[in-house]
């Protein structure tokens, strides 16, 4: 099974998204797609007079912002992705973590920053795997928006990378799972200015060395830390690569950055 997370820059590019969905639909076997949609949510927020508030790359989600991200992620984007996949013969079902209680979470609680209605996932052990397995048996492809719920009636804005890794770990208890992060780069780059400087294989030792050298930094660090944690929890492999190469990545060919223990 492939759990695939699509990056926001691809979602925002109609031509790239169109090609990605065609390629995604053609992938054989059970698969799951996870998406966010932050840029579109920010644009709509501004149109509604709600100024986006970001701290350390995370969206502060007050009640008004929660309404916007729920509309954009769970409605506008999610249902359009489902419709476009149906047109490509991929029988899909749009979901959030609240549906069928698939992904319980809790409101983030930090002393120094109030993130509002931002959710941290409880545990992969709490994921409703029997429900997801039943979808796979029926040939249905779940399309997850980056939303969870707290069990108290509140939706929660949750990091899409985290949702993807949580689902991958949970499903690895029943399936052999590859977790794939697709975005606009060919993989993890040794030189951010050189698109072809892809690091094709990362293990803990060379990852630590590259971090120490400053070759890998900033936004890529949490994604990679998440990737190694997923591997330690039972995921078979994690691959980071270009959305245009999703078919070859899913087929196990040597493209992008493969992360192993």
UniProtKB/TrEMBL annotation:
Q: What is an annotated GO biological process for this record, any one?
A: L-arginine biosynthetic process via ornithine
Key word Nucleotide-binding present: yes
InterPro entries (alphabetical): AceGlu_kinase-like_sf (IPR036393), AcgluKinase_fam (IPR004662), ArgB (IPR037528), Asp/Glu/Uridylate_kinase (IPR001048)
| Reactions catalysed according to its record | N-acetyl-L-glutamate + ATP = N-acetyl-L-glutamyl 5-phosphate + ADP
Q: Write out the similarity annotation.
A: Belongs to the acetylglutamate kinase family. ArgB subfamily.
UniProt keyword list: Amino-acid biosynthesis, Arginine biosynthesis, ATP-binding, Cytoplasm, Kinase, Nucleotide-binding, Transferase
Q: Which Pfam families match?
A: AA_kinase
Q: Which GO terms describe its cellular component?
A: cytoplasm
The name this protein carries in UniProt is Acetylglutamate kinase
Q: Could you list the residue ranges forming a coiled coil in this record? A: none
Localization (cell): Cytoplasm
| Tree of life domain | Bacteria
Give the protein's function.
Answer: Catalyzes the ATP-dependent phosphorylation of N-acetyl-L-glutamate.
Q: What class of enzyme is it?
A: transferase
Which gene specifies this protein's sequence?
Answer: argB
